[in-house]
Amino acid sequence: MDLKSLIRDIPDFPKPGILFRDITSLLRNPEGLRYTIDTLTQKCKDAGLAPDYVVGMESRGFIFGSPLAYQLGAGFIPVRKPGKLPGAVHTIEYDLEYGTDRLEIHQDAFDPGSRVLIVDDLIATGGTAGATAQLIQQTGSELVGFGFIIELKDLGGRQKLPDVPILTLVEY
Ligand SMILES: O=P(O)(O)OC[C@H]1O[C@H](OP(=O)(O)OP(=O)(O)O)[C@H](O)[C@@H]1O
Ligand SMILES: Nc1ncnc2[nH]cnc12
């Protein structure tokens, strides 16, 4: 399936100069949505990642992380924007292609010794994914890989990530 044909390009959103890769046009397509989740699931299985938990970042990481966790027989752990999680949290500040933000995770999110897979819709500068990897490090769990639907290669996001497998479906 040609996933690129289902991803809509919106110039100058949310700021001038940013070419926004819009996944809502993919999500609304039943075959595209199924293919996306099934293909990422198969890539994780082929790579032997066998995570105990899938971590998804608010908000677009939730959309893909939850069904992937379900398919892999793993739990889903949300990484959220500040002030949203009710329990004790680890916090980290990070850079985005168009600003800065903070992310939080529950300190007791994982059972000790857990294997963790990070999933998001897109990697651009790698700020979000790199920060999430640092959050997982703070919990003491083992990061086993990353899964992204879209990688924007020119922005060099991979260089901010630890040396674990990175699975992607579409590259620009
Ligand atoms: O690699 P980076 O430069 O960090 O950019 C990628 C991140 O940016 C987007 O999220 P955003 O913060 O816009 O939030 P949203 O999911 O709530 O739209 C996207 O969903 C990734 O999480
Ligand atoms: N160019 C882009 N398109 C969609 N989401 C993004 N998040 C960060 N950069 C993005």
From TrEMBL:
<dbReference type="GO" id="GO:0006168">
    <property type="term" value="P:adenine salvage"/>
</dbReference>
<dbReference type="Pfam" id="PF00156">
    <property type="entry name" value="Pribosyltran"/>
</dbReference>
<keyword id="KW-0660">Purine salvage</keyword>
<dbReference type="GO" id="GO:0006166">
    <property type="term" value="P:purine ribonucleoside salvage"/>
</dbReference>
<dbReference type="GO" id="GO:0002055">
    <property type="term" value="F:adenine binding"/>
</dbReference>
<keyword id="KW-0808">Transferase</keyword>
<comment type="function">
    <text>Catalyzes a salvage reaction resulting in the formation of AMP, that is energically less costly than de novo synthesis.</text>
</comment>
<dbReference type="GO" id="GO:0003999">
    <property type="term" value="F:adenine phosphoribosyltransferase activity"/>
</dbReference>
<keyword id="KW-0963">Cytoplasm</keyword>
<comment type="pathway">
    <text>Purine metabolism; AMP biosynthesis via salvage pathway; AMP from adenine: step 1/1.</text>
</comment>
<dbReference type="GO" id="GO:0005737">
    <property type="term" value="C:cytoplasm"/>
</dbReference>
<dbReference type="InterPro" id="IPR050054">
    <property type="entry name" value="UPRTase/APRTase"/>
</dbReference>
<keyword id="KW-0328">Glycosyltransferase</keyword>
<dbReference type="InterPro" id="IPR029057">
    <property type="entry name" value="PRTase-like"/>
</dbReference>
<dbReference type="GO" id="GO:0016208">
    <property type="term" value="F:AMP binding"/>
</dbReference>
<dbReference type="InterPro" id="IPR005764">
    <property type="entry name" value="Ade_phspho_trans"/>
</dbReference>
<dbReference type="GO" id="GO:0044209">
    <property type="term" value="P:AMP salvage"/>
</dbReference>
<dbReference type="InterPro" id="IPR000836">
    <property type="entry name" value="PRTase_dom"/>
</dbReference>
<feature type="domain" description="Phosphoribosyltransferase">
    <location>
        <begin position="24"/>
        <end position="150"/>
    </location>
</feature>
<comment type="similarity">
    <text>Belongs to the purine/pyrimidine phosphoribosyltransferase family.</text>
</comment>
<comment type="subunit">
    <text>Homodimer.</text>
</comment>
<protein>
    <recommendedName>
        <fullName>Adenine phosphoribosyltransferase</fullName>
        <ecNumber>2.4.2.7</ecNumber>
    </recommendedName>
</protein>
